[in-house]
């Protein structure tokens, strides 16, 4: 390169190319990709760089601010390990995880909306008796859940698989507290009966806060945003000839219902966990719900 420069006439500007444009813009990166077999990866990077280019220009980002951004992203990476996925937490709290879910699993009106499974799902939850209890330690306010799995036309779906998982009354999942809760506490798999019905006994789930001790929690706290997730029960339902449903059912009365930290609440997912006398003369809560699946679609 030194040799090439030396042959330029004194005072002549070097030839501009895509690496020396004075007024750099995102299109320069896209131009470099043009014609290369980069596929979806290149397409995604081009869109990303265009968006970042717009951000830098709109904010007139200073070098010091840019350094801060890079330092923050480095911190997020360092906070992630095999047990904790800080990047997923960042995507969740920015609303990006739910956006991807909404774009990829739109359901016709009348079907129960899909949501993210979240980090506490276990695929190996044990099969429970339909009507039995999923609370292995009996701690908490008793809750009776009764539901039906239906197709969009209202037809009951017998033999459907209903996976359920939830936090305890303190807002903790059993896999967060392996030393305090029994293995597979408050989770299990059930099969719907001949009328598409399922039932289980449990305890009222508590709402919980996302972790505040990492870079994502600190960012949200600094912005004055809350990390609360309103109380809910997770369901994953599979039935022959239907799209799998993964969703949450939220307690309508939870004070955090309007500010879910990961934007998972939808009007169709609100339910009443009503006070009710339960079997055995105890007073507890009862939840009745229908989970409506979408028939498999072409394409
Ligand atoms: Fe959850």
Task: Show the helix and strand layout.
Blueprint: H1 2-6, H2 26-33, H3 39-59, H4 63-79, H5 86-93, H6 96-104, E1 142-151, E2 161-166, E3 187-191, E4 197-203, E5 208-209, H7 215-222, E6 228-229, E7 232-238, E8 245-251, E9 270-271, E10 274-277, E11 283-293
Parallel strand pairs: 1-11, 8-9
Antiparallel strand pairs: 1-4, 2-3, 2-7, 5-6, 7-8, 10-11
Helix pairs in contact: 2-3
The structure holds fe (ii) ion (FE2).
Fe (ii) ion (FE2) is lined by residues 118, 120, 232, 234.
Q: Could you explain how this protein is built, in words?
A:
The chain has 299 residues and is an alpha+beta fold. It folds into two domains: 41 residues; 203 residues, Aromatic compound dioxygenase (Protocatechuate 3,4-Dioxygenase, subunit A, Sandwich), CATH 2.60.130.10. Helices cover 25% and strands 21% of the residues. The chain is built from seven helices and eleven strands. The strands form three sheets. It has a five-stranded mixed beta sheet with strand order 3-2-7-8-9, with no helix packed on it. The protein has a four-stranded mixed beta sheet with strand order 4-1-11-10, with no helix packed on it. A two-stranded antiparallel ribbon has the order 5-6. Helix 2 runs antiparallel to helix 3. The relative contact order is 0.14. The N terminus is likely disordered. Bound molecules: fe (ii) ion. Fe (ii) ion binds next to strand 7.
Considering the chains and any ligands shown, give keywords for the structure.
binds fe (ii) ion, Protocatechuate 3,4-Dioxygenase, subunit A, 299 residues, 21% strand, disordered N terminus, globular, alpha+beta, four-stranded mixed beta sheet, 11 strands, five-stranded mixed beta sheet
